[in-house]
Amino acid sequence: MSARGTRLGDKLLHVYTWLVIVWLSSPIAVMILFGFNDKKSKSNTTWQGFTLRWYGELFDISDLTVALRNSLVIAAVSTIVTVVIGTMLGLALGRHRFRGKGVTNFLIFAAISTPELVMGASLLSLFVSGNVPRDANTIIIAHVLFSLSFVVVTVRARVVTLDPSLEEAAKDLGATAWGTFRQVTLPSILPGVMAGAMLSFALSIDDYVVTSFVNGSTITFPLWIVGAVKTGIPPQVNVMGTLIFGIGVLIAIGNAVAARRRI
Protein backbone atom coordinates (compact mmCIF):
# COMPACT_ATOMS: atom_id res chain seq x y z
CA MET A 1 0.00 0.00 0.00
CA SER A 2 1.26 3.47 -0.90
CA ALA A 3 2.03 6.14 1.67
CA ARG A 4 -0.96 8.16 0.44
CA GLY A 5 -3.27 5.18 0.93
CA THR A 6 -1.86 4.61 4.43
CA ARG A 7 -2.48 8.25 5.40
CA LEU A 8 -6.03 8.08 4.04
CA GLY A 9 -6.68 4.91 6.00
CA ASP A 10 -5.36 6.52 9.20
CA LYS A 11 -7.58 9.57 8.68
CA LEU A 12 -10.66 7.41 8.09
CA LEU A 13 -9.86 5.41 11.22
CA HIS A 14 -9.53 8.62 13.25
CA VAL A 15 -12.84 9.94 11.90
CA TYR A 16 -14.56 6.65 12.62
CA THR A 17 -13.17 6.60 16.17
CA TRP A 18 -14.43 10.11 16.89
CA LEU A 19 -17.85 9.28 15.45
CA VAL A 20 -18.09 6.30 17.82
CA ILE A 21 -17.02 8.47 20.76
CA VAL A 22 -19.61 11.13 19.88
CA TRP A 23 -22.31 8.47 19.49
CA LEU A 24 -21.51 6.92 22.86
CA SER A 25 -21.26 10.31 24.59
CA SER A 26 -24.43 11.84 23.16
CA PRO A 27 -26.84 10.35 25.78
CA ILE A 28 -24.62 11.71 28.56
CA ALA A 29 -24.49 15.11 26.89
CA VAL A 30 -28.31 15.18 26.63
CA MET A 31 -28.63 14.22 30.30
CA ILE A 32 -26.27 17.01 31.38
CA LEU A 33 -28.03 19.53 29.12
CA PHE A 34 -31.53 18.76 30.38
CA GLY A 35 -30.36 19.12 33.95
CA PHE A 36 -30.41 22.85 33.13
CA ASN A 37 -33.77 22.76 31.36
CA ASP A 38 -36.28 25.32 32.67
CA LYS A 39 -39.20 22.89 32.77
CA LYS A 40 -42.49 24.80 32.43
CA SER A 41 -44.71 21.83 31.60
CA LYS A 42 -45.06 18.16 32.48
CA SER A 43 -42.66 17.17 29.73
CA ASN A 44 -38.92 17.38 30.24
CA THR A 45 -38.09 16.15 26.74
CA THR A 46 -38.07 19.54 24.99
CA TRP A 47 -35.75 22.46 25.70
CA GLN A 48 -37.66 25.27 27.41
CA GLY A 49 -34.89 27.56 28.65
CA PHE A 50 -31.80 27.62 30.84
CA THR A 51 -31.97 27.48 34.66
CA LEU A 52 -29.94 26.41 37.69
CA ARG A 53 -33.12 25.87 39.70
CA TRP A 54 -32.95 22.09 39.79
CA TYR A 55 -29.51 22.08 41.39
CA GLY A 56 -30.99 24.08 44.27
CA GLU A 57 -34.04 21.81 44.46
CA LEU A 58 -32.06 18.60 44.03
CA PHE A 59 -33.51 16.82 47.07
CA ASP A 60 -37.05 18.21 46.98
CA ILE A 61 -38.55 14.89 45.79
CA SER A 62 -38.33 12.71 48.91
CA ASP A 63 -38.93 9.35 47.18
CA LEU A 64 -36.23 10.08 44.63
CA THR A 65 -33.79 11.12 47.35
CA VAL A 66 -34.44 7.88 49.25
CA ALA A 67 -33.94 5.85 46.07
CA LEU A 68 -30.64 7.60 45.37
CA ARG A 69 -29.47 7.03 48.94
CA ASN A 70 -30.40 3.35 48.68
CA SER A 71 -28.41 3.00 45.46
CA LEU A 72 -25.35 4.72 46.90
CA VAL A 73 -25.37 2.67 50.12
CA ILE A 74 -25.93 -0.61 48.28
CA ALA A 75 -23.22 0.21 45.73
CA ALA A 76 -20.73 1.19 48.45
CA VAL A 77 -21.34 -1.92 50.59
CA SER A 78 -21.35 -4.33 47.64
CA THR A 79 -18.16 -2.74 46.28
CA ILE A 80 -16.32 -3.16 49.59
CA VAL A 81 -17.38 -6.81 49.89
CA THR A 82 -16.63 -7.51 46.23
CA VAL A 83 -13.17 -5.91 46.35
CA VAL A 84 -12.13 -7.86 49.45
CA ILE A 85 -13.30 -11.23 48.10
CA GLY A 86 -12.30 -10.50 44.51
CA THR A 87 -8.79 -9.40 45.47
CA MET A 88 -8.18 -12.62 47.38
CA LEU A 89 -9.52 -14.72 44.50
CA GLY A 90 -7.47 -12.75 41.98
CA LEU A 91 -4.33 -13.32 44.03
CA ALA A 92 -5.06 -17.03 44.33
CA LEU A 93 -5.77 -17.50 40.63
CA GLY A 94 -2.85 -15.38 39.48
CA ARG A 95 -0.23 -16.64 41.88
CA HIS A 96 -0.97 -20.22 42.97
CA ARG A 97 -1.68 -23.62 41.47
CA PHE A 98 -4.38 -25.67 43.17
CA ARG A 99 -6.89 -28.40 42.41
CA GLY A 100 -9.99 -26.94 40.80
CA LYS A 101 -8.27 -23.83 39.45
CA GLY A 102 -9.51 -24.53 35.92
CA VAL A 103 -13.08 -24.96 37.12
CA THR A 104 -12.82 -21.74 39.13
CA ASN A 105 -11.58 -19.81 36.10
CA PHE A 106 -14.44 -21.26 34.05
CA LEU A 107 -17.02 -20.21 36.65
CA ILE A 108 -15.56 -16.70 36.84
CA PHE A 109 -15.91 -16.14 33.10
CA ALA A 110 -19.27 -17.95 33.01
CA ALA A 111 -20.62 -15.44 35.52
CA ILE A 112 -19.50 -12.57 33.26
CA SER A 113 -21.23 -14.06 30.23
CA THR A 114 -24.44 -15.02 32.04
CA PRO A 115 -27.39 -12.82 30.95
CA GLU A 116 -28.72 -10.60 33.72
CA LEU A 117 -32.20 -12.00 33.17
CA VAL A 118 -30.97 -15.52 33.92
CA MET A 119 -29.02 -14.38 36.98
CA GLY A 120 -31.94 -12.37 38.34
CA ALA A 121 -34.42 -15.21 37.86
CA SER A 122 -32.09 -17.78 39.46
CA LEU A 123 -31.44 -15.54 42.47
CA LEU A 124 -35.16 -14.90 42.87
CA SER A 125 -35.81 -18.64 42.83
CA LEU A 126 -33.05 -19.19 45.41
CA PHE A 127 -34.39 -16.52 47.78
CA VAL A 128 -38.00 -17.65 47.44
CA SER A 129 -37.17 -21.34 47.98
CA GLY A 130 -35.10 -20.40 51.03
CA ASN A 131 -37.78 -18.08 52.43
CA VAL A 132 -35.30 -15.20 52.41
CA PRO A 133 -37.05 -11.82 52.67
CA ARG A 134 -36.16 -9.62 49.71
CA ASP A 135 -34.79 -6.22 50.71
CA ALA A 136 -31.58 -4.21 50.51
CA ASN A 137 -29.58 -7.20 51.80
CA THR A 138 -30.66 -9.44 48.92
CA ILE A 139 -29.82 -6.66 46.48
CA ILE A 140 -26.32 -6.42 47.96
CA ILE A 141 -25.87 -10.20 47.67
CA ALA A 142 -26.99 -10.09 44.04
CA HIS A 143 -24.70 -7.18 43.18
CA VAL A 144 -21.72 -8.89 44.81
CA LEU A 145 -22.37 -12.02 42.77
CA PHE A 146 -22.57 -10.35 39.36
CA SER A 147 -19.70 -7.88 39.91
CA LEU A 148 -17.29 -10.26 41.68
CA SER A 149 -16.02 -11.76 38.44
CA PHE A 150 -15.02 -8.36 37.05
CA VAL A 151 -12.90 -7.60 40.12
CA VAL A 152 -11.28 -11.03 40.01
CA VAL A 153 -10.35 -10.63 36.34
CA THR A 154 -8.81 -7.16 36.77
CA VAL A 155 -6.83 -8.13 39.89
CA ARG A 156 -5.68 -11.41 38.36
CA ALA A 157 -4.44 -9.59 35.25
CA ARG A 158 -2.34 -7.35 37.48
CA VAL A 159 -1.04 -10.20 39.64
CA VAL A 160 0.33 -12.26 36.73
CA THR A 161 2.58 -9.33 35.75
CA LEU A 162 4.23 -9.03 39.18
CA ASP A 163 7.83 -10.06 39.79
CA PRO A 164 7.82 -12.74 42.56
CA SER A 165 11.41 -11.85 43.44
CA LEU A 166 10.21 -8.59 45.04
CA GLU A 167 8.18 -10.48 47.62
CA GLU A 168 10.97 -12.99 48.15
CA ALA A 169 13.40 -10.13 48.78
CA ALA A 170 11.06 -8.58 51.32
CA LYS A 171 10.78 -11.89 53.18
CA ASP A 172 14.55 -12.38 53.10
CA LEU A 173 14.90 -8.93 54.73
CA GLY A 174 12.71 -10.06 57.61
CA ALA A 175 9.25 -8.88 56.57
CA THR A 176 6.31 -10.93 57.80
CA ALA A 177 3.71 -12.35 55.42
CA TRP A 178 1.32 -9.50 56.28
CA GLY A 179 4.10 -6.92 56.04
CA THR A 180 5.10 -8.23 52.62
CA PHE A 181 1.52 -8.06 51.40
CA ARG A 182 0.94 -4.58 52.80
CA GLN A 183 4.21 -3.00 51.67
CA VAL A 184 4.99 -4.87 48.44
CA THR A 185 2.07 -6.84 47.00
CA LEU A 186 -0.82 -4.48 47.69
CA PRO A 187 0.87 -1.34 46.26
CA SER A 188 1.79 -3.33 43.16
CA ILE A 189 -1.74 -4.61 42.51
CA LEU A 190 -3.50 -1.44 43.70
CA PRO A 191 -4.24 -0.14 40.16
CA GLY A 192 -6.05 -3.39 39.40
CA VAL A 193 -7.90 -3.28 42.72
CA MET A 194 -9.00 0.32 42.14
CA ALA A 195 -10.11 -0.47 38.59
CA GLY A 196 -12.12 -3.41 39.87
CA ALA A 197 -13.66 -1.26 42.61
CA MET A 198 -14.71 1.45 40.17
CA LEU A 199 -16.17 -1.12 37.81
CA SER A 200 -18.03 -2.84 40.64
CA PHE A 201 -19.50 0.44 41.90
CA ALA A 202 -20.60 1.45 38.40
CA LEU A 203 -22.22 -1.93 37.74
CA SER A 204 -24.06 -1.78 41.05
CA ILE A 205 -25.38 1.76 41.01
CA ASP A 206 -26.92 1.52 37.54
CA ASP A 207 -28.23 -2.06 37.64
CA TYR A 208 -31.91 -2.49 36.89
CA VAL A 209 -32.56 -6.03 35.63
CA VAL A 210 -31.13 -8.12 38.49
CA THR A 211 -32.25 -5.60 41.11
CA SER A 212 -35.86 -5.72 39.87
CA PHE A 213 -35.97 -9.45 40.69
CA VAL A 214 -34.62 -9.28 44.24
CA ASN A 215 -35.49 -5.82 45.58
CA GLY A 216 -38.73 -6.56 47.41
CA SER A 217 -40.00 -3.20 48.61
CA THR A 218 -36.60 -1.47 48.37
CA ILE A 219 -36.47 1.09 45.57
CA THR A 220 -33.16 2.06 44.00
CA PHE A 221 -32.35 4.96 41.69
CA PRO A 222 -32.80 3.01 38.40
CA LEU A 223 -36.03 1.39 39.64
CA TRP A 224 -37.46 4.80 40.60
CA ILE A 225 -36.64 6.25 37.19
CA VAL A 226 -38.34 3.40 35.31
CA GLY A 227 -41.39 3.71 37.56
CA ALA A 228 -41.59 7.46 36.90
CA VAL A 229 -41.56 7.17 33.11
CA LYS A 230 -45.36 7.17 32.85
CA THR A 231 -45.75 10.35 34.92
CA GLY A 232 -42.68 12.13 33.55
CA ILE A 233 -39.02 12.17 34.53
CA PRO A 234 -38.26 15.21 36.72
CA PRO A 235 -35.17 17.33 35.95
CA GLN A 236 -33.64 16.30 39.30
CA VAL A 237 -32.95 12.88 37.78
CA ASN A 238 -30.73 14.47 35.14
CA VAL A 239 -28.95 16.53 37.79
CA MET A 240 -28.30 13.48 39.97
CA GLY A 241 -27.06 11.54 36.96
CA THR A 242 -24.78 14.43 36.01
CA LEU A 243 -23.29 14.59 39.50
CA ILE A 244 -22.75 10.82 39.63
CA PHE A 245 -21.10 10.91 36.22
CA GLY A 246 -18.92 13.89 37.16
CA ILE A 247 -17.74 12.30 40.40
CA GLY A 248 -16.96 9.08 38.54
CA VAL A 249 -14.89 10.96 35.97
CA LEU A 250 -12.95 12.79 38.69
CA ILE A 251 -12.21 9.52 40.49
CA ALA A 252 -11.05 7.91 37.25
CA ILE A 253 -8.77 10.87 36.47
CA GLY A 254 -7.37 10.84 40.00
CA ASN A 255 -6.70 7.11 39.79
CA ALA A 256 -4.97 7.51 36.43
CA VAL A 257 -2.79 10.37 37.72
CA ALA A 258 -1.87 8.41 40.85
CA ALA A 259 -0.99 5.34 38.76
CA ARG A 260 1.21 7.42 36.46
CA ARG A 261 3.09 8.88 39.43
CA ARG A 262 3.77 5.38 40.75
CA ILE A 263 5.36 4.31 37.47
From TrEMBL:
One protein family per Pfam: BPD_transp_1
Transmembrane residue ranges: 12-36, 72-94, 106-130, 136-155, 239-258
Signal peptide start and end residues: none
SUPFAM superfamilies, sorted: MetI-like
Transcription keyword on record: no
UniProt keyword terms in alphabetical order: Cell membrane, Membrane, Transmembrane, Transmembrane helix, Transport
One annotated GO biological process: transmembrane transport
Subcellular location(s) per record: Cell membrane
Domain ABC transmembrane type-1 residues, every copy: 68-255
CC annotations in GO: plasma membrane
Broad class of where this protein is predominantly found: membrane
Membrane topology, record value: Multi-pass membrane protein
Similarity comment: Belongs to the binding-protein-dependent transport system permease family. CysTW subfamily.
The name this protein goes by in its record: Spermidine/putrescine transport system permease protein
